[in-house]
């Protein structure tokens, strides 16, 4: 009750990219309760089971890392901060001096704060002079970035969550919103109560999200581009396009060449509903129906997607093909009509995409390959422009390959758990054993097992920071309580090591580093189209959607009067001529298709109770009890054929590894016959020993959603 609370402080939820607002109740330096923030426009007071568990999480200190540790004679032993940080600085300095800046690396997270990401970018690119900075967001939304960049010339969605309340048709593809974005799903459900509002679900697996579906498209895994092209075909074939919009606001391209609408039509002839039916396994009538529902001129159409789309080797192409539907019909940049990709992590947008903790990026959506961008950041940082290498070095999977080869000799992992989350992990284990590995985290993880130094981190409201969510909303949180033991914020850890490496001049923050760093970052966002507001604005408000110009946030980009960068009508100003691109993309299928030897398609994903590798959620007794171990979902036809019952132990075997799991037939998810689904949260049963590390050639995001396996009773 509020009379038992000394103070309430607002914060975005620690878990997913939805960015729900919570109020944290504190008494005697303890979080005593957490509740939904009714004033936050994202969730209006509602939370999902993870959000409601935040209070319990903050008090789950029993297993917390509270002391720095270093490895001595093969064993991790407790030490003090000075010893641990000196060791890191000494090793990093030695490798930089002996082998060059590219011999060291940092692997960060979409769960780091904006300030932490900015400091890492400045440290690696501006001070050390290497692009060996990557981020786990590579594993979840790099393909969405690739889609927005190629189609519109700028990353991140043009729409916002309020589009949900304005949409008449939801096209949900590759997203189990009911479990992975439950609060947004609840907003969709409330909207769907209006009987005129329809939902199309395109997914190979039946999930809880299907409860609201009006049209189910259970396509074969890896056939998304074929389905989307077939919908485009019908939209054009039945005259459902907005030709005026296409002429005014788009170009069409195939294999890098300009094409006209007729040529695009010819390209799509390979994807008539009948032909696409062979690739997708769908009924051609359903494809036509979906196209008519989407393109109905009376409806506002909102596309929503996430990892089911992004985690494929055709992830960028699928994103492009979704954008095509909106551009062909002109259903974009207006309330209710938008392609809105859903982000996984709480600050995958704010920290990974916007600050740019990827090898190829610089702050405020700049890229290292662009000379002007390097010059702008060099000026901003007060360094020589030649310090920033002009070529990206390693994307995530390539970085771990470089570690395997010994080309990278030191790795600092912050707020993420690659020993559980990297696909095909057997291949990368040796590298983690050999590299000088620093891990900053709050609890022991699979990755800390390999660490030479473990740094105990402050968690969420034990520190101050800023997150950026899916709808471009930047949200601030204050420090509410002290971290347990000697745990310290990652930001403090980065700044200390930067100073010990001799870069103190570049990191002069003193009184209030979080504010000073944010203001420094903000300055380089102004005039870029991603303008941020002064720090205090975020302390007061429930977040603001960028660009924020003259104190006003932007609900919808590229359209006047919402977007201050557009004078009139619509302008996709990420492109030199203000026009977006409709791409003719071919369906190429997955990297590894099932065959006689490995006849099943394996897909991995999440359950609502657990956050990613469950480092935090397994500490909450109720969440642990609700789903304590992972399992493999099997279609009943396959189970019957193989004489498998729910609860039997089965073995999944791929070309890369194997794993024993409990079988589950029926329940919260039902994959199609020939498909298996395994949640990846369970550290005792690492499904990433089995998955494939093939990546999208452009986004470099791995194909977690499809690999070939065989299954037998154990
Ligand atoms: Fe937190 Fe996401 Fe649940 Fe909202 S939907 S309460 S942000 S985990």
UniProtKB/TrEMBL annotation:
Subcellular location: Secreted
One Pfam family recorded for the sequence: Molybdop_Fe4S4
SMART domains with a match to the protein in the record: Molybdop_Fe4S4
Binding site for substrate: 680
Post-translational modification: Predicted to be exported by the Tat system. The position of the signal peptide cleavage has not been experimentally proven.
GO process annotations (BP): Mo-molybdopterin cofactor biosynthetic process; nitrate assimilation
Residues given in the record as Mo-bis(molybdopterin guanine dinucleotide) binding sites: 50, 111, 136, 140, 222-224, 307, 311, 417, 440-441, 463, 490, 604-613, 688, 705
Cofactor: how bound: Binds 1 molybdenum-bis(molybdopterin guanine dinucleotide) (Mo-bis-MGD) cofactor per subunit. Binds 1 [4Fe-4S] cluster.
Annotated GO CC locations: extracellular region; membrane; nitrate reductase complex
Keywords: 4Fe-4S, Electron transport, Iron, Iron-sulfur, Metal-binding, Molybdenum, Nitrate assimilation, Oxidoreductase, Signal, Transport
Family: Belongs to the prokaryotic molybdopterin-containing oxidoreductase family. NasA/NapA/NarB subfamily.
Function field: Catalytic subunit of the nitrate reductase complex NapAB. Receives electrons from NapB and catalyzes the reduction of nitrate to nitrite.
Oligomer status and interactors: Component of the nitrate reductase NapAB complex composed of NapA and NapB.
Name of protein: Nitrate reductase
Classification lineage: Bacteria, Bacillati, Bacillota, Clostridia, Halanaerobiales
